[in-house]
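Re: the 803-residue chain
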Amino acid sequence: MTNALVLKFEDVTREDVGLVGGKNASLGELIGALVPKGIAVSPGFATTAHAFGLFLEHNGLRAVISQHFARFEAGEVDLAKTGAAIRAVISGGEWPEELREAICDGYIQMAQEEGEAEPAVAVRSSATAEDLPEASFAGQQETYLNISGEEALLDACRRCFASLYTDRAITYRAAHGFAEGTVALSVGVQRMVRADQACSGVMFTIDTETGFPDVVMIDGAWGLGENVVQGAVDPDAWQVFKPLLGKREFSPIIARRCGAKAVKMVYSQAGGASTINVETSPEERDAFVLSDPEVLRLARWAVLIEDHYGRPMDIEWGKDGADGELFILQARPETVHSRIAPGTLRTYALSRTGEELVTGLAIGGSAAHGPVCLIKTAQDIADFVDGSVLVTSTTDPDWVPVMKRAAAIVTDHGGRTSHAAIVSREFGLPAVVGTGNATKVLHSGEAVTVSCIGGEKGIVYAGSADVTSEEIDLASVPDTETRIMLNLADPGAAARWWQLPSDGVGLTRMEFVIANTIKIHPMALVQFDDLRDVDAKAQIKRMTAQYPDRRDFFVDQLAQSLARIAAMQFPRTVIVRMSDFKTNEYAGLIGGKEFEQREENPMLGFRGAARYTSPQYRAGFALECRAIRDLRQDLGFTNVAIMIPFCRTLAEADAVLAVLRDEGLTRGENGLEVYVMCEIPSNVVLAGEFAQRFDGFSIGSNDLTQLTLGIDRDSELLADQFDARDPAVEWMIRHVIEQAHRHGTKVGLCGQAPSDDPEFAHFLVECGIDSISVTPDSFLAVKQHVAAAEKARKARSTRKEAG
């Protein structure tokens, strides 16, 4: 088999990387092992490493290539001239007759199977060392599309051979330790998937920024996939939660973003092989390239591929415009997070940040600063200054030699699966991609800080901020009987903390998601036709253009945002607090002024449970409930519990529970738990009665301190007296814990006090609290405080028993 010149894909397995390269070996593995399980892969064949060697020997090229590299290593010629000279001699080579016949025979057999005289094929390069876990070889060799006819096929194969010696491929091999002469080139010839008439893209079976293993990330755009890979467009993007994919009753798409998709790559003429970018229509820009069922099908295929290979995968897909079918085009190992040793978590922090200049998608999870070096085209790469922040419109493999010398990378276009994103991760660089305007806003020489530490949003700040980092050894985190949970509200940042050994999420503030993601007052959607604010109405109309019923915008965005938090902790409990805006905060939402009255003291005004049952907001609360219902019933996140804030009286509690039932959220049904915030003295005084109505309490230490001591928590004049350790506040906390346990109800605390004050954490442990919920950055400290308190309590108990 090693002397074969051409092999059909079905005769190749992943063990044959040395024979047909990683790309072609993977295609053979997919066809042989996974097509029977339902995955669609186009048929084809591959030339072998032996065929490449025969071509070189037939034309006497090995010695010629060695001579060119000897001159390059001696410094007599530069890389560009070396690569060009080698490519020229390969491109001018003659085909050995037996190799010509083998390739043409393979093509004729494909034509017979397809029932076409000259079927269009994709001709792809596959280096015999590529797609290894240590290196992606992303785009290092060439691909030629829509090739028809024997002579055109032979010419494309020869150009693939030559592409082993592009500047970028030579540089990449050297950077990854592959000695020249040790890598051969196989050519894959595969029936064309006419994605030019439909769409294509890339997907990963892991969160490419955080390493969270339970999601499939899918990017797609109209036309051929090169635009997505190169980052020439801002693609549509989806995230799908893998653990719920096997349950057909659920549709676990936890993120969905419609990209700009300003251009699409198509063939320049009918039947031609050259490609051009053409502008997309307004309808194409506003529409998703895939339906939800298609997204779920791709995600299920991705899971099958990952399970088969036993590692995270990087997969290319395409949709055939002729028959509407989806196909897998390539599958290779993911090359960044699969190499990171588990058990450590590195966190970054910034101080002294300047003005926010541009934003985009965050790649890499770190931060760096340096002077801007603006490079607009690949022809100007030689002008790059080492250690600068590379700013450009988009990158392709030709940029690799300078990308690895950059401090950070910023691009106008591209998504998480673009070339700039993939290479930045491999080199360990922070990158902000898809900014839209970086090349217009940033100027060469100005100092900037590139920050990718705040979740999915990457920010470029003016000036050089102080960047600090800390590595957490997760093996050193102590076990505690008291559950330590997280306070999370930003869906984009939640995935950063998936490795923390938390016991779930004790507090997710719904109002944070509404304010930062939805931004529209829910009643402005309910009563859109009656809005008087012309500007707000126009803004809402633009934002909800894809929704025939504008209320669905609120429900979908809220459900998906909360799903991303719920996914990071699944199946551990995630407690979502229903919206707790004050009237002045609600009024600040788009269209909100028409629905809110001005209050002298919003902190004690129309908020929480009273709002939910009022005619003034009842329809808005119904949208919140619909989002929770979709989150649990349609997406499948039954680990989500809900919490009612600022519930003043038992009558309010009964009324809210009745409204929840009316909205399909009945406590106890399908495992639904309903908690109540304990932040008002009445909650403590009547703790036994509240315990009979709810599944648990969450003590809000800030509001409870404020209302117990009668101190405005925002007052600067009384700040020194605002103390959660005041004896009166401690009595309140101790009493509600005792009452909750007496009635068999759980009780926790969500607040900053245990993070700031180790003694307060000790006090809570002594009271026997069930859980403490803290911000992720203080999780480790609180965990250690609680472990120490539990150890001290056990020691005292032991001494007491012995005494």
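The chain has 29 helices and 30 strands.
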